[in-house]
Specification:
- The structure is a homodimer of 191-residue chains.
- The first copy, chain A, has 191 residues and is of the alpha+beta class.
- The first copy, chain A, has a single domain, classed as Chalcone isomerase (3-Layer(bba) Sandwich).
- The first copy, chain A, is 25% helix and 28% strand.
- Chain A is globular, with a radius of gyration of 17 Å.
């Protein structure tokens, strides 16, 4: 599969790179491009989701989230992610006018960005690591000091992941009582 | 899985029912609720898609489209749908404020509507039939005179289906040259 990298996505990545801790150790974990993720289990799709106020963009982006089937089965049974869970977030542009569509938005052909959030209890400090792919080559882990780790750790509903936005999994975690203490605190603060 | 039917969805269905040809023959084909469709192949998700100008709604709806894995494999190889293809469109409400999200939209837990578009060359006149599910009971086919059949037949990029909106399949159909004559006519008229 080809990944299209328009100028805009490059700008986003350059900005993200600047925000990350720039020093990487020599033994940074690598992760292979998960080429069959479109055959995995779909968790959800969001549009232009943003956790900050007032950060509107002049383009629209869908994010489709997939998980490896083995991890999905374990989550359905336990409300928890097993070791070797791999979540993939695929970003595609949103378009309104095209073919006979006149309102709302559909997804464009080219993938703009691909990100992986993987659990490996032995390999990754904190058990989880993020990877961003610009093409199908293996990627190096984003350093643990990056903001994404802190945000997922503080606000993810289950084990560093945003299960609160995965409609088939949120009720399972609720039933199994596996929501994190920090997520429950977030929720009670909003009431 | 439970299906939530708020008043709004009921109103939509009642409106749809009025638009359909109201007379059904005694031997209307039935279709079982495809309870495992969330384990199938995800094709795309759209938001508030509409083929008419100016029909904005006061709510937001994502539509997630899935297909049975056997049919997906055949399409990847041939650019065509085999007999017994089943496409599922699952509608979920879109929400902006929730947890730490502040912009854009994420998908809500409850399924608002579920529709099936199935191919059965022997059972269905015109090979394809539509079914709308209000719960997990089997549904009767929407009559062939309904507008959905005519629109899919005239504007679907491949064999009565909107492959032009399925980002992983559109390039395959293009490569295999399986676009319908009517779709190619639509596209050339827009240039």
């Amino acid at each position: 599969m080809s990944i299209h990298f328009p100028k805009l996505a490059c700008a986003v990545l350059i900005f993200a790179a600047l925000c990350y801790v720039p020093v990487q150790a020599a033994d940074v974990p690598q992760f292979d491009y998960p080429s069959d993720y479109r055959n995995w289990i779909f968790l959800t799709s969001g549009l232009d989701m943003n956790y900050s106020e007032g950060m509107g963009a002049d383009h629209h982006m869908f994010d489709n989230v997939f998980v490896n089937p083995e991890a999905y089965k374990v989550f359905q049974a336990t409300g928890r992610w097993p070791d070797k869970t791999v979540l993939v977030k695929e970003m595609r542009g949103g378009q309104t006018k095209g073919s006979i569509n006149r309102n709302g938005m559909f997804q464009q052909v080219g993938v703009m960005e691909l990100e992986v959030h993987a659990k490996d209890e032995k390999r990754f400090p904190g058990q989880w690591a993020f990877f961003a792919f610009g093409d199908t080559k293996p990627a190096a882990a984003i350093p643990q000091g990056a903001q994404c780790y802190a945000c997922h750790g503080s606000h993810g509903a289950v084990d560093n992941t945003f299960v609160q936005f995965y409609p088939t999994l949120k009720p399972i975690a609720e039933g199994k009582k596996t929501f994190s203490a920090s997520y429950l605190k977030d929720e009670s603060a909003q009431k």
